[in-house]
Amino acid sequence: MKKIYITTPLYYANAELHIGHAYSTVAADVLKRWHKMFGREVFFLTGMDEHGEKIYGSARAAGMDVQNWVDTMAEKAKKLWKFLNISYDDFIRTTEARHTKTVQFVFSRLLEKGDVYRGVYEGPYCVSCESFYTENQVRSAGGNCPDCGRPITEIKREDSFFFRLSKYGRDLLEYYEKNPEFLSPGDKANKTIDTVRRGLNDLCITRQTVKWGIPLPADPSKTIYVWFDALINYITAAGYPSDRENFSSLWPADCHIVGKEIFHFHTVIWPAILMALGLPLPKKVFGHGWWTLKSDKISKSRGNIVTPYEVCEEFPADVLRFFFLREMPFGSDGAFSMDRVRERYNSDLANSLGNLFQRVEKMLKKYFGSKTPPAGEFVSAIIEKEREVLNQTDKFMSEINFYSALTKIWKLIDEANRFVEETKPWVLFREKNEKLNNVMLTLADVLFFTAEILSPFMPGVSEKMFGHLGGRLGKPSPAAAPKNREIPGGKVLFPK
Ligand SMILES: [Zn+2]
Q: Are 436 and 425 a contacting pair, CB within 8 Å?
């Protein structure tokens, strides 16, 4: 049985993780929890990219042994993911023996096949981006790195090995054409297709002067280029090449979630490596947008880093998870500010969702002694809305469209608040109208439904909601609220 296989990028063990990294990881976690909620088998991989010149330099600058440095960074990452309620199944580190073995196997296999060959590399390299560029690219960026703008390093005639990337251009174009979902979201596809159409150069995949990397089996004086090394992690973790059973239950990946700045590596270089190995390609690579601070990308090199811990001094981690996916579509760029987080908290969480819980709990307490009604029928208009939400959100989530899914869920919450205003349960109670049963049973149903369907997004908050509701039903299902059930209620969910 094939499991759903979801990955984040491997974060570079060079500096503190910030909200940009947390964004990709939260998204992958929400996806995993979503599928699990419906009983689907899922495997969620994250981890750390621990090789390369830049990491070596950072460790040395800090006066640390490099292995110690990456160990510390990996521990910090795990701590952060725990803090953010991330439920990964595997955390891979590229310095692990299992990964070294797979990378060396891949290299040897491609060398045998003739897709890796010996040559001489000469040209520009950016240590900060760990990326090779052409003279033309550097010239048009004023002599600096075309991506980060930093000074470029010239590599002088290094004896190297190359991957025959140029050979796979036509096959890549054909794959994009037949699998339009592979390049997601769709607006990022054109740039990739153009790049491949213009023709690909072979890629230098070894470094002569960099010692902190995986040594070449054929020539241990060289190490493997850090990107070639890192991309292979997705198949290492799936058990390639030796654990065939595990591998066939996971590969191909269903979705690689990546930031748009590394879309090229995942949609051009990575599939070409897989083609060379004769392996199936991932079904989807989703390149998400950037959070910006005053319209500048959040990043260490730009000096405007925000850590999730800073945001969570004021709010629980679930609020940040929610904000990430509710505030802007996953493929777009958006401005991050504490003011926006506060606004979202007040409007969506405290006012809409928190208020619904509070008023319904209060009424159940007053009218039925903190129980759901002993009798009654569900009001079909609201139950229909729940059904619609269930069907549409699952479709949105399969398209990695968190934004539309949450928008849909909030329409239901707003609808339920309006339903209270329109049906006026306090009048029905006063007039001893038996419709009160129907109205309150239906409202209780919305609480159960909402607590379940939000649990992938805000697992901690949902736990609290289940506490208020006296336990959970297991998955979101319309018209499932039991009658005459104790609803203990509890403290305000989102205090202002
Ligand atoms: Zn750069």
A: yes
Cis? peptide before 456, omega within 30° of 0: no
What's the gap in Å between 297 CA and the centre of ligand 1?
14
Distance 19 CA to ligand 1 centre (A): 21
Query: Do strands 223-224 and 206-207 pair parallel, antiparallel, or not at all (unpaired)?
Result: antiparallel
Residues with Cβ within 8 Å of residue 430, at least 6 apart in sequence? none
- Distance (angstroms) between ligand 1 centre and the Cα of 130 equals 7
- Ligand 1: centre distance to CA 153 (Å): 10
Per-residue pLDDT of the chain (496 residues), as tens digits, is 899 999 999 999 998 899 999 999 999 999 999 999 999 999 999 999 999 999 999 999 999 999 999 999 999 999 999 999 999 999 999 999 999 999 999 999 999 999 999 999 999 999 888 889 988 999 999 999 998 899 999 988 889 999 999 999 999 999 999 999 999 999 999 999 999 999 999 999 999 989 999 999 889 999 999 999 999 999 999 999 999 999 999 999 999 999 999 999 999 999 999 999 999 999 999 999 999 886 566 665 666 667 899 888 889 999 999 999 999 999 999 989 888 999 999 999 999 999 999 999 999 999 999 999 999 999 999 999 999 999 999 999 999 999 999 999 999 999 999 999 999 999 999 999 999 999 999 999 999 999 999 999 999 999 999 999 999 998 999 999 999 999 999 999 999 8
CA–centroid distance, residue 140 to ligand 1 (Å): 14
Helices 402-423 and 380-398, axial angle in degrees (round to 10): 170
Domains, in order of start, for the chain: 338-468 (1.10.730.10)
Cα separation, 17 vs 487, whole angstroms: 41
| Ligand 1 centroid – CA 129 distance (Å) | 4
The Cα–Cα gap between 33 and 42 comes to 9
Tokens standing for residue 124: 């520009």
Torsion angle of alpha carbons 218, 220, 224, 225, nearest 10°? Answer: -120
Find the DSSP H helices in 232-280.
233-236, 244-250, 263-264, 270-277
Ion ligand 1 — residues with CB under 5 Å?
A: 126, 128-129, 145, 147-148
Answer yes or no: are the C-beta atoms of 408 and 468 closer than 8 Å.
no
Q: Which two tokens stand for residue 255?
A: 């979705």
Q: How, if at all, do strands 90-93 and 116-126 pair?
A: unpaired
pTM of the shown model = 0.95
